[in-house]
Amino acid sequence: MIIQIIELIVIGVIAIEDIKSMSISSWKIWILAALSVGSAVFEMAAGANDIQRAIVAVLPGVVLIVLYYVTGKQIGLGDGMVTLCMGPAFGIERVALGITVAFFVSGLFSLIIIAALREKRNKSYPFIPFIAAGMVVATIAKI
């Protein structure tokens, strides 16, 4: 649980960077990946997890990376990389719930921005802050 809290903090730092510059430093993704792999290895050594579960947990990230290419880069590659890195530490259930919450909240945000502020529909906003919020909700829901 401590590693997951540290990961949430790193995701929060990444979210702030994404809001400010619409890009992410690759070294922060590497930190997230190292924490996640370390967490998965620790859980496997303790017998609380197995390799199949860790592999399945990266599927939401793989889906977002595929969507990056399929949608013509409408979804950021960093969004997929962050989600991919979260998988082994949080597990498929929590990541799927977090991403679902992120899509739902970002959809509501987009509707509000379009309706209330009359923003252009093709304007892009960072998605990692929504992922961070979704993962906090998913983590609290799983406690």
In sequence order, what are the helices and strands, one letter per element?
A: HHHHHHH
Instruction: Count structural domains.
Output: 1
What percentage of residues falls in helices of 4 or more residues? over 70%
Share in β-strands: under 5%
Major β-sheet profile? none
- End-to-end gap: 10 Å
The poorly predicted ranges are none
- The coarse overall form would be elongated
SSE blueprint and pairings:
Blueprint: H1 2-21, H2 26-45, H3 51-56, H4 59-70, H5 77-90, H6 92-117, H7 128-142
Helix pairs in contact: 1-2, 1-5, 1-7, 2-5, 4-5, 5-6, 6-7
Report what the structure shows.
- This protein has 143 residues and is mainly α.
- The chain has one domain (2-142).
- 79% of the residues lie in helices and 0% in strands.
- The protein has seven helices and no strands.
- The chain has helices spanning 2-21, 26-45, 51-56, 59-70, 77-90, 92-117, 128-142.
- Helix 5 (77-90) runs antiparallel to helix 6 (92-117).
- It is elongated.
What descriptive keywords fit this protein?
7 helices, elongated, 143 residues, 0% strand, mainly alpha
In short:
The chain has 143 residues and is mainly alpha-helical. The chain has helices at residues 2-21, 26-45, 51-56, 59-70, 77-90, 92-117, 128-142. The protein contains seven helices and no strands.
